[in-house]
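Sat 14:20. Reprocessing the chain from the morning session after the first attempt stalled halfway. Input below, unchanged.
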Amino acid sequence: MKITRWPIESSAVRTMGYDAESSTLEVEFSSGDVYRYYSVAPADVEGLILADSKGTFINQVIKPRYRFRQVGGS
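Finished this time. Tokens:
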């Protein structure tokens, strides 16, 4: 699966993308590591986009709620 990511203004996140068909969120962190989060609700993606701190939102909302795996980086 190829997910198109777009740049994000964040110290923790470099790019992110969302595939609505599969509800998959892909996040590239500033470290270069890329993670996919599965079955992510559109409301949580919107929350991430609007969050003042992307890293905090991912750690407090996305990671505890959704299954994920690393798909790129070190």
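Residues 10 and 53 are 7 Å apart (CA to CA).
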